Amino acid sequence: MTTATADKAAYDGKVLDLSGKSGVRAFKNTLATVLMVLAFVLAMIPLLWILYTVVTKGYHLILNADWWNQSQRGITVRREGGGAYHAIMGTLIMGLITAVIAVPIAVLAAVYLVEYAKGTRAARVVSFMIDILTGVPSIVAALFVYAVWITVFGFNRVGFAVSLSLVLLMLPVVLRSTEEMLKLVPDELREASYALGVPKWKTILKVVVPTAFGGIVTGVMLGLARVMGETAPLLILVGYSKNINLNPFSGFMGALPTMINQDRNDMALQPANDRVWAAALTLILLVLVLNLLARVVARFSAVKSK
User: Fold this and answer.
1) Where in or outside the cell is it found (predicted)?
2) 301 to 2, 211, 219, 245: CA distances (angstroms)
3) Rounded Cα–Cα distance for residues 200 and 116 (Å)
4) Distance from CA of residue 131 to its chain's centroid?
């Protein structure tokens, strides 16, 4: 068989074209495509159903300006009015403190695992412990912080204690995503930097991390989305307050998950029902806005290729 006829074969005087798919292969390909599309549709149905329910039941209150600049002080379950300012600020403050603590630790640990300890016993031990931490329920993390923060040290139930427990939940998510993003950086970039005489720490700082920055930011947002909706740490480590409290080291604080929990037992009353759905929609919008901001930051901070 010559090169000119490499894609064809002759048999009994007939030319057999091998460029297309056989009937069995075409059927398998079509069947796999249909199954994947069907799985995608089945996964989207509950998501769209949840979003539709939350939006249709909760959009009424969030369109009111009072929802964004007033608290629930003096508002009973039977009374309409007030807003979610106290809960929104509490959620953002505790989430910000969590990110400030968890993100540097997770990123530095991921850099160590990928760049310095690859294949070592220490890396395997750390990876094993991170896998265990990934499966720890939020209530267990909250009870651990309660035992240390309140029982051992005798501190009060405050918002900062909630952030400490959320760090335990956010840390493995950010670390694993950062680790995978760093592994995707081509070794050729590292080798080119080393060939120019650039030290390893500067190569990591100037080449590796900027290349993986978009994925790292996405992992951070996934971690925040993971912890901002947690309720158990809030119930155990800080009491719910309808007043505005912006100090995470003193007093009870409001948060959107505990605001939902506060009124969920009185959803037969229309004012409480409206507040529950509006708080749920507000939490979804906060996560959405943070993800959009992260995408913008990642786009403008990414390494530009010429």
Assistant:
1) Cell membrane
2) 53, 9, 15, 34
3) 10
4) 17
User: What backbone phi and psi angles, to 5 degrees, belong to 9?
Assistant: -135, 140
What the block records as the tokens of 247 is: 């100090």
Instruction: Give me the residues paired with residue 15 across strands.
Output: 10
Backbone phi, psi, residue 15, to 5°: -95, 125
CA 216 – CA 228 distance, rounded (Å): 18
Mean pLDDT of the chain: 87
Q: Return the C-alpha torsion angle 222, 224, 230, 234, nearest 10.
A: 170
SS3 242: coil
Task: Please give the Cα distance from 248 to 37 (Å, whole number).
Answer: 47
Distance of CA 84 to the CA centre of its chain: 23
Please check whether residue 245 is in contact with residue 162, taking contact to mean a CB–CB distance below 8 angstroms: no
* Two structure tokens written together for 229: 């909706």
Considering just the CA atoms, what is the radius of gyration of the chain in Å?
A: 26
| Tens digit of each residue's pLDDT (9 = 90 or more) over 176-208 | 999 999 999 998 989 998 998 889 889 999 889
Please indicate, yes or no, whether the overall pTM of this predicted structure exceeds 0.90. Answer: no
Closest to 126 measured CA to CA, from 138, 139, 117: 117
Residues whose CB is less than 8 angstroms from the CB of residue 304 and which lie 6 or more positions away in sequence, other chains included: none
Token code pair at residue 50: 């949840």
CA atoms within 13 A on the CB side of 10: 5
3-state secondary structure of 14: strand
